[in-house]
Write a structure and sequence with these properties.
alpha+beta; 3 domains; five-stranded mixed sheet
Length: 339
């Protein structure tokens, strides 16, 4: 709060004072009042007005400066009223009450939209579960009658199933704490499920699925981790190179305070310029133009779920050589004490 602007705002009050002061002096001179008395009265009037202005300024400055500073510091500016003291002047009380009413109205409106969003998410989840039943039936029918249906139809159903899973996990990722259960699981068991799920695609694309040294227990949610690994393996299959010895290699490294799971492939790789953005929502990069089916959501959801599970995920790549995704499982001493 600048004093110059405060004085400018009080210009009408100052003008009224000056006019009144001049009229008082003229009246005193008209009645031939002693000049020393006139000087004394003038000094008293000036001191009175200046005292009023300074006291009023510093009272208001403390409140407004605190309001501005706290608003800038807060991530959620609407909580600023919780960080300041109630003002001791009427204008400040009005501002405080108005901000309170605005904040209350905003919270009520946000609550309405949140309820609508929750209802929509619930509907999407219900719809997905309903769709999965006939979809699973179609996959089973095609697998049992491969002579009647083309492999292209089965591949299309698999892509549809994967897309539906992405929608489900994306919807749940915002409130994943309601759905996941962290416990000690074996990495080898999870990777085995991932290999079986992707077996047909691996065989069709002639990709060797190599697994080494993964018999380690980590604290995670098996279902969420399986989805994360599926997204990584799917990307490795999708972006394979047209070479004879294509492979996906999975191995784990056991460290003192962590287990690092590495998924490496010798596919087309990722350009260096795209590496910093591969986990961004809907980012497809140069490889996205190479593959039309790319949505840029798989790695984004994987990153989001890893953060919520307390894991770390990184990616490194050399163009036309390899891509390596690392998932770091930190060992939780608190969990070990309680279990």
């Amino acid at each position: 709060m600048k004093f110059s602007k405060y004085i400018k705002d009080k210009r009408y009050l100052i003008i009224i004072f000056l006019v009144t002061y001049i009229l008082i002096i003229l009246n005193l001179l008209a009645y031939k009042t002693d000049k020393y008395l006139i000087i004394s009265i003038s000094l008293l009037l000036i001191i009175m007005v200046l005292s009023f202005l300074f006291i009023d300024y510093f009272r208001k400055k403390k409140f407004y400066q605190e309001l501005v500073n706290n608003t800038k510091k807060l991530d959620k500016a609407y909580l600023v009223l919780e960080t300041i003291l109630k003002p001791d002047f009427y204008e400040g009380e009005l501002v405080s009450d108005i901000l309170f009413d605005i904040n209350k109205s905003m919270i009520e409106n946000v609550k309405i939209y949140e309820d609508q969003l929750i209802d929509f998410k619930d509907y999407i989840e219900m719809w997905i579960h309903e769709v999965k039943i006939p979809l699973a039936s179609l996959v089973l029918t095609i697998n049992n009658h491969k002579d009647k249906y083309s492999k292209k139809a089965l591949n299309s159903l698999r892509r549809l199933e994967d897309s539906i899973d992405k929608v489900l996990y994306y919807v749940r990722s915002e409130e994943s704490w309601k759905d996941y259960f962290i416990k000690e699981v074996n990495l080898g068991d999870i990777i085995k499920n991932v290999g079986l799920k992707n077996m047909e695609d691996l065989l069709d694309n002639k990709i060797d699925f190599k697994v080494f040294n993964v018999d380690f227990n980590v604290e995670t949610d098996a279902k969420w981790l399986e989805f994360i690994l599926n997204q990584i393996v799917n990307n490795s299959i999708k972006y394979k190179r047209n070479i004879k010895n294509s492979y996906i290699k999975i191995e784990a490294i056991n460290d003192k305070d962590k287990v690092v799971l590495k998924i490496t492939d010798n596919g087309i790789g990722i350009p260096k310029s795209d590496l910093k953005q591969v986990f961004d929502k809907t980012f497809t990069g140069q490889n996205g133009r190479y593959k039309i089916v790319s949505t840029g959501m798989g790695l984004y959801i994987a990153k989001s779920l890893c953060q919520k599970l307390g894991h770390e995920i990184t990616i490194d790549s050399v163009l036309n050589s390899k891509t390596e995704v690392s998932i770091i499982f930190f060992k939780n001493n608190y969990y070990e004490v309680l279990k």
